[in-house]
Design goal:
Layout lengths: L2 E8 L4 E8 L6 H9 L5 E7 H17 L3 E7 L8 H13 L7 E6 L1 H13 L5 E6 L2 H7 L4 E6 L2 E8 L4 E5 L8 H18 L1 H13 L5 H4 L3 H24 L20 H10 L7 H18 L5 H13 L11 H7 L6 E2 L2 E7 L5 E5 L5 H13 L1
Parallel strand pairs: 2-9, 3-4, 3-5, 5-6, 6-9
Antiparallel strand pairs: 1-2, 7-8, 10-11, 11-12
Helix pairs in contact: 1-2, 3-4, 5-6, 6-7, 6-11, 7-9, 10-11, 10-13, 11-12, 11-14, 13-14
């Protein structure tokens, strides 16, 4: 069994943890807990959802029990609408009723919703207990499980309530992607394209290469091929390493940092994406699908402002479309999208900070003060109509 490992050290807090990547690693999560927590006893509360736990719960429980941990399980709903204050309260109540102490831990077993919610719970329960990430979607593997952003959605926006809280360890089992629905794979690959767009041609070409070798409908078969699996693990590791390198330099997304190493660049494509999610009540688009549209929007806006060449916009459009079919958005009112921008968490001093491109691998942060409203309206209409 091959395995990749990415070690993360966050300068500001001296937080350090390992991200293990391989195929078939889920059965070793007890070992991850022992290594990450420095002990083989205590309680671990597993936060998951019914769908994921039905498939992988027995394996995880067996491994943790064998390693010496006492386990309990709390299942939340499946979908962005469950990343809420109500779910947060129910989960905190569960930890209290099970008498978890400061020396115990929370394990997130699931996608980004589970990971974000469980991480936030761990950050506020008893003012912070240990936290382990076991992501089961492609998007959460390369994005939300890395970097310590946790939080919930509210009526006034996405991820506006939360905390920066680094996990003690992350375990990524590529094999679980064989059971992932097509839309979830498309969502994850869109996030991979986003990171390739801001990282540079090497990571973007690596992502494109994987997409050329397997469509989202054939990845289950491909993951049974050892040679492809090794290549796929390296792809996951490269994606994780890029995000980790950005987080290490700007853990808390400093408001004053606006260069190409700012954590804000990871929001490329996300302003338009969050607007789409908000006005559809987080129930129509997967987060990564919205990011796919966000990439297209940000690239088109960059071209409108004469920051990027047409051929690079076409390249990004092509790679996004390789990820799979995105749900149509032609029923969405462009004026609602423009209004939703006001609730984006990247607003600083009443001015939205846009992440655009001067070229592939050359992200730039542009204040909305420098973007004509007419340009925004035009690009919104073009993306929605197309």
């Amino acid at each position: 069994m091959t395995q990749e490992k990415v070690s993360i050290k966050i300068g500001r807090t001296s937080s350090a943890y390992d991200i293990k990547i391989g195929n078939g690693l889920l059965a070793t999560c007890g070992g991850l807990a022992v290594e990450s927590l420095g002990r083989s006893s205590g309680k671990i509360a597993i936060i998951s959802n019914k769908t994921v736990f039905a498939i992988y719960g027995k394996t995880v429980l067996a491994s943790l029990t064998k390693a010496g941990f006492e386990t309990s399980v709390h299942l939340i709903g499946d979908g962005e609408k469950y990343k809420s204050l109500k779910t947060l309260e129910k989960t905190l109540t569960f930890l209290g009723e099970n008498k978890l102490s400061r020396t115990d831990a929370v394990m997130a077993l699931g996608g980004g919703v589970v990971g974000d919610l469980a991480g936030f719970v761990a950050s506020v329960y008893l003012r912070g207990i240990a936290f382990l990430q076991v992501p089961t979607t492609l998007l959460s593997m390369i994005d939300s499980s890395v970097g310590g952003k946790t939080g919930i959605n509210t009526s006034f926006g996405k991820n506006l309530v939360g905390a920066f809280y680094q996990p003690n360890g992350v375990l990524i089992d590529a094999g679980v992607l064989a059971t992932l629905p097509r839309r979830e794979l498309t969502a994850g690959f869109c996030e991979a394209v986003k990171q390739g767009a801001i990282s540079g041609r090497k990571l973007l070409d690596q992502t494109t290469g994987i997409l050329e070798k397997t469509g989202v409908d054939s990845i289950a078969r491909k993951l049974s091929d050892e040679r492809f699996t090794e290549e796929f693990e390296k792809f996951l590791a490269a994606q994780v390493l890029f995000k980790a390198s950005i987080v290490a330099n700007d853990e808390r997304e400093s408001a004053s940092k606006t260069d190409a190493k700012s954590r804000k660049i990871l929001n490329f494509g996300h302003t338009f994406a969050h607007a789409l999610e908000k006005i559809t009540n987080y129930r129509y688009l997967k987060h990564g699908e919205a990011v796919g549209y966000g990439i297209i929007f940000a690239a088109e806006l960059s071209k409108k402002l004469e920051l990027i060449a047409l051929n690079e916009v076409e390249l990004l459009n092509d790679v996004v479309h390789r990820t799979g079919v995105l749900p149509t958005i032609d029923h969405i009112d462009p004026s609602e999208v423009l209004e939703a921008f006001k609730y984006d968490k990247k607003n600083i001093g009443n001015s939205l900070q846009w992440v655009l491109l001067n070229g592939i691998g050359k992200p730039v942060i542009v204040s909305q003060e420098n973007i004509p409203t007419s340009a925004l309206k035009s690009v919104i209409q073009n993306v929605i109509r197309s």
